[in-house]
Amino acid sequence: MASGVARIIYRCEEAMQTQHLDLSDCQMVHIAEGVYHLMKETEVKTLNISGNVLTKISPRLVVKFGLLQDLDISRNQIASLPNEISALAHLERLNISSNCFIEIPECVYRLPCLKELDASKNRITDIDHENLRNATFLSNLNLTDNPLTKKCIENLPQGGIIFTMPQEQEDWEDLNV
Length: 177
Description:
- Helix content is 24%, strand content 12%.
- By secondary structure, the protein is of the alpha/beta class.
- The radius of gyration is 18 Å and the shape is globular.
- Residues 169-177 have low confidence and may be disordered.
């Protein structure tokens, strides 16, 4: 436990110089109050909290790290995001891959500068197509390794967004011979 705390403190001190806070693989179940305190005078542009055991993101993250341009919350156990996430006015890249999402949270569509969204390796079966059409800044959306329905895939908007998805299997590839 002490070595984990020391690692987090070291990474916070490093971020004070670089504006890039990497708290990945620290076995965190939440972002400790001490992290916010250590970083209170630092404009964090990149936050990586991947590979932890987080089940939710606190709205406090948005308040304390309001200038984020890149947020990586991949490889956790998160199923939803707080609506406050949409207040991250500078966020360009969001990685929510390898979590427990069954849909892309509505607040993600309201991020005004979001260009890249990695939503791969979740449990997403359908996309809110209207919200997706209104996400005008979004240019790349990774949906690989999600159980998307065929209807969902067929209704994805054409043009404007580059989608990364597994290629459809031909019917004959499913046959056991």
